[in-house]
Amino acid sequence: MFKNIVTDIFFDLDHTLWDFEKNSALTFKKILTGNNIDIELPDFLEIYIPTNLAFWKLYREERITKSELRHQRLKTVFDALKYPVHDETINLLSEEYILHLSEYNHLFPNTIEILEYLRPKYNLHIITNGFQEIQEKKLRNANICDYFAHIINSEMAGVKKPNPIIFQLALQKANVLPQKALMIGDSLEADILGAKAVGLHTLHFNVHNDPQHEFCEMIHDLREIKSFL
User: What is the pLDDT of residue 194?
Assistant: First the structure.
């Protein structure tokens, strides 16, 4: 579908290549146990996962700061579980979470296979809303950093996906026209609609069981990329 059209592929990182939920769960298991927080991990994650996504949406929309995101997502979970935790402990957990998250480096199935398949044929890049210091560690520790020519993050761009500025910066750094570029990501709002607004081709990696839509093709396994490229 994109053969002979696309020269450059931009990937999102979290929830697309790097298995955020699995790595996040392992991190919380470590820090909750280490700080004697007596909450069952499944109970914690049941509330944390949707809460985190909701706060990231607020962060993308510039409605909260990075520090508010990191603090409030945890406070909201503990409040919902009616588990009393001092703000100092929440701040400590937040710092430890960021410190240890990149120690776990589970990738989605077939990530290496598809990167190996694509690398000889296309220029590969990352566009991520994640924090620069931790995203770079994730890429290095997961041994996938060398696959990508350019890694564009929201702190570098000064805006977050779906803001067109971050996609325009990515195109500029890669020296490629939007009609020759493909964005692959998990977020309909941030990755797909954001990239399409700038003129990129798009492919939706549906890991959140989003409903079908007409904006672009949808895949559920990274290996399916081969049928498009």
Answer: 98
